Structure formats: C-alpha cells, structure tokens
Amino acid sequence: MEEAFLALGGNVGDVGSTFDHAIAMLCDGAAVRLIARSSNYRTPPWGVTDQPAFLNAVIAVATSLSPHDLLSRALDCERTLGRDRIREQRWGPRKLDIDILTYDEIELHDADLTLPHRHLFERAFVLVPLAEIAPERVIAGIRVRDALARVDRTGVEKLPAH
After folding, report:
1. What is the pLDDT along the chain (162 residues), one digit of tens a residue?
2. DSSP state at residue 29
3. CB contact set of 108 (below 8 Å; sequence gap of 6+)
C-alpha cells in the first residue's frame, strides 16, 4: 500500500456533508483506506475571488491503486456528487473538487496528472489542513510545516468539528 494525500474543496451546497460522502466513496477500506482527515477550514476563494468562501480539507490514504486509478476514482466521486467539470468556470464555484497532492514519493508529469500537485506550495487552503495531519512530511524536498510558513494564511479559519 502506498500513501497519498488528497485535497477536498467546495463552496456550493452543504460542503461538509459532501466531504463526508466523498470520503466514504473514496475510501472503501480495501483499495483505499483512510489514514487521517484534517479539520474543515473556511478559506477565501483563490483564482476567481468574486464567489463564496470555500470549505477545504485534506485526507491521507493508504492505497493499492495506481496514481491514475486513484485519480479516476476521485473524478468518478466528483461526478457522482454533482460536479460538472465541462460546464463550470475554472477556479469558480463548485460542489466538490478532489485533487491528489502527493502519491508516495512519485514525481509524475503527464497530460492527466502532475505529482506532487503543481500548486501545492502556493496555496494556504491546502497547506494549512495538510500541516494539521502531516507537518513533518517532506514533499519534493520541502517539509510541509516549512512550506506553510512561507504562505499567507489570511482568511483561513479552522471550523469546529461537527
């Protein structure tokens, strides 16, 4: 089993409930097993700023799926829970977004998947929840807590457990 970190985000509907459903769909206990889940965080929009705040979280999983099969499962989960990547605005409002941040120590750059995620070290909405569950994890030679220290965390708010 390999270790992967996935980011979840959304700002349309009951996002907390959508996260719970997504995690249950992703993590079947066999090919994908949940290891850790961060708190939910309310975060300002990134990219397109004229939209509601987002909810973000990160999960760690153990998986026997390949990186591309894990991506396929994540995209299937998004579609099942109401995401339409074809019709939506890039970085705009969405019910659910699932991104693979890392997959073990693999570096991958192809048309479908880049690992580690190309914007990982730029986004507080990913680094804050990732640092909650894996502050000492080293990704591409950078410790998560050190990467977090370099980004602006303004507006990132940890939400109470529900």
Report:
1. 999 999 999 999 999 999 999 999 999 989 999 999 999 999 998 777 888 999 999 999 999 999 999 999 999 999 998 867 666 666 667 889 999 999 999 999 999 999 999 999 999 999 999 999 999 999 999 999 999 999 999 999 999 986
2. S
3. 67, 114, 115
Smallest CA-to-CA distance from 79 within 65, 92, 96, 62 is with 96
- Helices 67-80 and 15-26 pack at an angle, to 10 degrees, of 140
Active site residue ranges: 83, 94, 97, 99
Q: Which two tokens stand for residue 27?
A: 């993590």
Q: Whole-angstrom Cα distance, residue 94 to residue 79?
A: 11
Is the whole model's pTM more than 0.85, yes or no? yes
The range of the structural domain enclosing residue 140 comes to 2-158
The CATH number of whichever domain residue 108 belongs to comes to 3.30.70.560
Domain count within the chain: 1
Whole-angstrom distance, CA of residue 152 vs CA of residue 119: 14
